[in-house]
Structures are given as C-alpha cells and as structure tokens.
Write a structure and sequence with these properties.
Structural class: alpha/beta
Helix content: 25-40%
Family: Belongs to the peptidase M14 family.
Order of helices and strands: HHEEEHHEHHHHEEHEHHEH
Strand order of the largest sheet: 1-2-4-3-5-8-6-7
Bound molecules: zinc ion
CATH class: Alpha Beta
Distance between the termini: 52 Å
CATH architecture: 3-Layer(aba) Sandwich
InterPro entries: CARBOXYPEPT_ZN_1 (IPR057246), CARBOXYPEPT_ZN_2 (IPR057247), Peptidase_M14 (IPR000834)
Strand content: 5-15%
Number of helices: 12
GO molecular function: metallocarboxypeptidase activity; zinc ion binding
Radius of gyration: 19 Å
Organism: Cryptotermes secundus
Number of domains: 1
Pfam families: Peptidase_M14
Length: 337
C-alpha cells in the first residue's frame, strides 16, 4: 500500500471517496453503503437491476419521508450519471451531489425535504470499469449481442476483422423514436442503438424504475460530458416541444446559478441546434414516454480543452457549480410551497 493511499484511508472515516481523483465503481459502492449506514433515516439503497456483466445497478433514495407535513405526496427528482463510460466527470459530479444532499443536509434542508431524490451515480458500470482497466475512451456498454443472438448474421466489420464488436450506446437505446436519426445499426459503431429498444439490461432497469414513479418525478437530469450545455428535448427532431419556453427558462435559471459560482459559461438549447440530432436518447424518452416535464441532458465541463480527460483537480469545482444549478432548478420545481 502506498503512503498516499494509507493517508487517504486514515482520513476517510469509513470510505474511500476523496473527490480528488476519479474513483473505481467499488469505491463508489462503498461510499453509498457508508451513507446508508451512517444516515439510515435519510438514505436508502435500492438495487434496480444488474448490468450485462452482473454488476449491481444501485439507486440511492434520499428522503425525509414520502409525505409533506400536510400529508401530501412529495414530488421526486431523478439524477443519473455514467451513461457513457469515458465521461468520468459525470459519476463524480453525481456523487458530489449526493454528498451535498446527505452530508450537508442542514444547508440543503429545503430541497431535500421538498422531494424524494433518486440518484444513480453509474448507469453503465461495465463500460465505466472497462474505461479504467482497458480502453480510456470506451463509450458503450459491454454487452455482446452477436453471441447472444446466433440467428443474427455477423456484421461486415466483424467478418473482416475476425472479432465481434461489443457494447451498445445506451443513449440511443431508449424506446422513443428508436433507431432514427443519429443512431447506427452497426455494432462496431460508437452510436450503435442496439438490436432493439431496451436491449440493454441497464436501460431496461432504469426505465422500469422510472415508469413506476413517473407521476411523481418532476425533474429528470442525466449527466454527460463534455461541452458545457444544458440540453432540452427533443433530440430527434428540430421541432420544439409544446412547452419549449418553460424548459428554456428553467434551463437558463440553472446555468445562471452555475455561472454565478464560477463564471463557467453554459449554453441552453436543444441538441439538433447546438450539437446534432440523435434518436433513442434518454431525455427524449423521459419527456415523450414517461411524461416528465423538466427533462434535461447536462453536458458538463469542459469546453474541449481536456475533453474526456478533464483533470481530477476540476472535480470539486465542477461539482460545486453543477450543484448550484441543480439546487436552483429543484427550488423552482419541487419547493414551490
Ligand atoms: Zn455522453
């Protein structure tokens, strides 16, 4: 054990999370467990399913009780990270958010008491671990549909290269305008949409969990990187949603709060105009199928200077500014009373 690691463990008080480096999935699971043991009245761990390679998908529920003092059912918030394996800042920021809600409960009491928070730090643990162990720029899941589905003919590239291409782009795998623009049907491509909608156990588990609570979830945030954008649906078309103005003004509220913390500049808009059109995406599904009004994809730091290789020294600053944005939006949406 290195000296650094020893000091870290001594200072950690029961978990390894430092927010000074990008942690492996097991460190994050230990931290979730630590929170649920230390704050049992506030934190509940829910295993919503398993990845293709059998890793647990853990949602943390942060709640002071499902009903308000008046006896009304509280609204809920969903936040996830780690859809795309190589976007390491995403799970780090979601973990930071969780830490603020739980360990800084007193400061954030209003938004914690105002809603039930469902937080999934790593949606794609197989891909995340693979990006640590083998290929830093891995994006997709690690499923293997060519072996699973023997009837499916081998793709051209796998025929030539003699290997199967693994993984599906989870953010093209949702069952809403699946397989249309900006999604590939080639398993060897980065944007492979999968053999069918919800072919991945990860997207299936998350969608089942959200559908069971869709009437309560008022805010849906899925964290990605990079490019500093607060993206609104739709991703699959240039058409605006009926409540485009509401989504835009709430998005501006978020990025204004973020900007006040650090001066970091974000753009607000929808993907076809700011980036490119994509179909089968998670936020489109959250709005179009689950009916969650405020559904956003957040593209975190940076602007491209480091891109996916954002230095770990920026984790805390990115966490701070993003949490300010989340707080502003949560206050406006779930703490109206
Ligand atoms: Zn992404």
């Amino acid at each position: 054990m290195s000296r650094e690691k020893r000091i870290e463990l001594r200072n950690s008080k029961g978990h390894e999370m430092t927010f000074k480096r990008y942690h492996r999935y097991s460190d994050m699971l230990h931290y979730l467990e630590y929170l649920s043991i230390k704050y049992p009245e506030l934190v509940e761990m829910i295993t919503i399913g398993k990845s293709s390679l059998g890793q647990p998908l853990k949602v943390v529920k942060v709640s002071t009780g499902q009903r308000t003092k008046k006896g009304e059912i509280k609204p809920a918030v969903w936040i996830d990270g780690g859809t795309h394996a190589r976007e390491w800042i995403s799970p780090a920021v979601v973990m930071y958010t969780l830490k603020q809600l739980v360990e800084n409960f007193k400061i954030n009491r209003k938004i914690v008491e105002g809603a039930d928070w469902y937080i999934l730090p790593v949606s794609n643990p197989d891909g995340y671990e693979y990006s640590h162990s083998t290929d830093r720029f891995w994006r997709k899941t690690r499923s293997n549909h060519e072996i699973e589905d023997e009837k499916q003919s081998r793709t051209l590239s796998s025929f030539f290269w003699g290997e199967t291409c693994r993984g599906v782009d989870m953010n093209r795998n949702w069952n809403f305008h699946w397989g249309e623009v900006g999604a590939s049907d080639d398993p060897c491509q980065e944007t492979y949409a999968g053999p069918r909608p919800f072919s991945e156990p990860e997207t299936r588990a998350i969608s089942d969990f959200i559908m069971d609570r869709k009437d309560r979830i008022k805010l849906y945030l899925t964290m990605h990187a990079y490019s500093q954008m607060w993206l609104i649906p739709w991703g699959y078309t240039n058409k605006k949603t009926g409540d485009y103005d509401d989504l835009m003004s709430m998005g501006r509220k978020a990025v204004d709060a973020l900007n006040r913390v650090s001066g970091t500049q974000y753009q607000v808009g929808h993907s076809p105009s700011l980036l490119y059109p994509t179909s089968g995406g998670a936020d489109d599904w959250a709005k179009g199928v689950a009916g969650i009004k405020y559904a956003y994809t957040v593209e975190l730091r940076d602007d491209g200077t480091y891109g996916f290789l954002l230095p770990a020294s920026q984790i805390v600053a990115t966490g701070k500014e993003t949490f300010a944005a989340i707080k502003a939006v949560a206050r406006a949406i779930v703490c109206k009373n």
